[in-house]
Amino acid sequence: xxxxxxxxxxxxxxxxxxxxxxxxxxxxxxxxxxxxxxxxxxxxxxxxxxxxxxxxxxxxxxxxxxxxxxxxxxxxxxxxxxxxxxxxxxxxxxxxxxxxxxxxxxxxxxxxxxxxxxxxxxxxxxxx
Length: 128
Fold this sequence. Notes:
There is one protein chain. The chain is mainly alpha-helical. It has one domain (21-122). It is built from five helices and two strands. The chain has a two-stranded antiparallel sheet. It starts with a helix and ends in a 6-residue tail after the last helix.
């Protein structure tokens, strides 16, 4: 590998570590869509408006990022097996206490994590 290739590889790696607002907005939008679908199909899971949905998507993204940063584990219902499924359900349930208008029961969080896993497998992008 010559010097130019090494420099190009280094620049590409630096770019991937940069903060990208477009990527963040797309991730929040995908999360909002997936959570809305999960709320529609899940008993015991309601959202009282678009602002609650968008705020919940941001909170879910932040909680997922924090858990991933501190434990190294992704909160993906199907990607990481039973542990990822439980982490996703816990994130949904904790969001209830942070976001007004986001109402979910324990069973709703468990079923919602399952629905999010299914929808996340269908819709491209990363929801949780």
